[in-house]
Design brief:
19 strands, about 475 residues, alpha/beta, five-stranded mixed β-barrel, binds FE3-S4 cluster, binds S-adenosyl-L-homocysteine
Length: about 475
């Protein structure tokens, strides 16, 4: 049977999509190849959030094709995901040897198209159409694949798309309108994962705080369930949002230890979600809450729908509900028209919040987005300079926060051997910090208390002598 190599660029959703495609192909008899050099099919699942991600993927594909022409005739090449969606056939015009271009609503058709391409029944396939119901198609997992023996953690896609239309963002175009899966469908997938030994589930979506508010479920967000969520809501006299109802439903799964989610949007971050942190122990003390900028003027230009003050208020409430909660964010540096004063507000917001970590993005104009047509696009040198300044600050604050954990005991979920040094094990704290320690493989999947002895760059090290065996 044919072998496939899938390389992923981009976010956790792309990782999850690739995993689902790989699982689908494995179920059809394909094997997973260790590299593009030994595969019959090479698929690149590509991000288009910034231009350099696209350029990296295009360069990679050109190199793979060039090499294959010399060494591997007959190899099949495909682009999947966001870039495939936004560029479509243009990718084949540019790289005529590409056989497959598969959009974000078509992952479930990968096996069928590849079978046809390999059998010579089709020449080239470009499928970037919308497909209703596609939000429910990314359900296969590869828990027991070669790479991920006995996975302890899993990602579950709860919705597709985004309607927020931040002025810089291409995602609403590549992922389409918001479409949510139903609660029973998601819970069934989570239950199956738990049965297979998964202890931690991350609920995934571009804007999870909008879960169930639009699209198919909008008319009956809690159609699927009438349990604790509704009861809690009644007691409080407020309606729990569909997203909180979903968390409550997943929380009931016996054997599941931890729940995470990414990414919420500050605009939809209601009181009920803050309260959920206060009362649901499996919801870990960790929040990734993209802020993008500390300046109200820029937030407005970005169409983010909240102010700096509102963002800070959410952070304050979360810390009140869960002291010590780990908070991370996304920041864009160099949005069109960003002044030194605006940028200084982003720096001061970082100082005020003290993020555990922040993912910094240099603004990149994206096709058809309003921000790309805004006046006063900043020169690259200025964006670089500001990026370096905020990076220095984020690293300094992060180091201080990590160092403060030295000597403390933390609960970690052991995920398996460390990627950098397979002789050691790795796990994450409830606050989502990576801990590396020496221990035995038999601890995989266990919750352990480890004492932190030292820190590295956004990494904690635990002392094996103090692991409670
Ligand atoms: N809501 C999604 C956002 C996906 S894009 C989520 O958080 O999962 C991820 C991040 O990329 C955004 O939060 C933003 O910080 C950054 N980003 C998006 N478009 C960008 C652009 N045009 N230039 C630079 N960074 C961008
Ligand atoms: Fe993009 Fe804003 Fe949605 S960043 S994914 S348009 S919330």
């Amino acid at each position: 049977m044919p072998s496939v190599y899938i390389k992923t660029y981009g976010c956790q959703m792309n990782e999850r999509d690739s995993e689902a495609v790989a699982a689908q192909l494995v179920a059809k008899g394909y094997s997973l190849a260790a590299s593009e050099h030994v595969a019959d099919v090479v698929l690149l699942n590509t991000c288009s959030v910034r231009d350099n991600a696209e350029q990296t993927a295009l360069g990679k594909m050109a190199a793979v094709i060039g090499d294959a022409k010399k060494n591997r005739p007959g190899q099949v090449f495909g682009f999947l995901g966001c870039m495939a969606q936004s560029r479509g056939k243009e990718l084949i015009d540019r790289l005529p040897d590409v056989d497959l271009v598969l959009g974000t609503q078509k992952f479930h058709r990968a096996a069928e198209y590849l079978d046809d391409l390999l059998a010579g029944k089709r020449d080239q396939v470009v499928d970037v159409e919308e497909e209703s119901g596609s939000e429910g198609t990314i359900r296969e997992h590869l828990l027991n694949g070669n790479a991920k023996a006995r996975s302890v953690t899993a990602f579950v896609s709860i919705m597709q798309g985004c309607n927020q239309h931040c002025t810089f963002c291409i995602v609403p175009y590549t992922r389409g309108e918001e479409r949510s899966r139903t609660i029973p469908d998601i819970v069934a997938e989570c239950r199956e994962l738990v049965t297979q030994g998964v202890k931690e589930i991350t609920l995934l979506g571009q804007i999870v705080t909008s879960y169930g508010r639009r699209g198919r479920d909008a008319s009956s967000p809690n159609c699927s369930r009438d349990g604790g969520g509704a009861l809690h809501a009644l007691r409080r006299g407020v309606a729990a949002t569909p997203f909180v109802q979903l968390i409550e439903a997943v929380h009931e799964l016996e054997g599941l230890e931890r729940i995470r989610f990414t990414s919420p949007h500050p605009k939809g971050y209601g009181q009920d979600l803050v309260e959920a942190y206060g009362r649901l122990p499996k919801l870990v003390e960790s929040a990734h809450l993209p802020v993008q900028s500390g300046s109200d003027r820029v937030l407005k230009l970005m169409h983010r729908g909240y102010t700096r003050a509102r963002y800070l208020e959410i952070i304050r409430q979360l810390r009140a509900a869960r002291p010590g909660i780990g908070i991370t964010t996304d920041i864009i540096v160099g949005f069109p028209g960003e002044t030194e004063a605006d940028f200084t507000e982003t720096l001061s917001l970082c100082r005020e919040v003290e993020f555990d970590n922040a993912y910094l993005f240099k603004y990149s104009p994206r096709k058809d987005t309003p921000a790309a047509a805004m006046p006063d696009q900043l020169p690259e040198a200025l964006i670089e300079e500001r990026h370096a300044r905020v990076l220095g600050l984020v690293n300094e604050i992060g180091k201080r926060k990590y160092d403060a954990l030295v000597g403390r005991k933390v609960e970690i979920l052991v995920e398996g051997p460390s990627r950098k040094n397979p002789a050691r094990l790795t796990g994450r704290t409830r606050c989502n910090k990576i801990v590396v320690f020496e221990g035995s493989e038999r601890h995989r999947g266990e919750l352990l208390d480890v004492k932190i002895t030292r820190t590295g760059s956004f990494t904690l090290y635990g002392d094996p002598a103090i692991v409670n065996l």
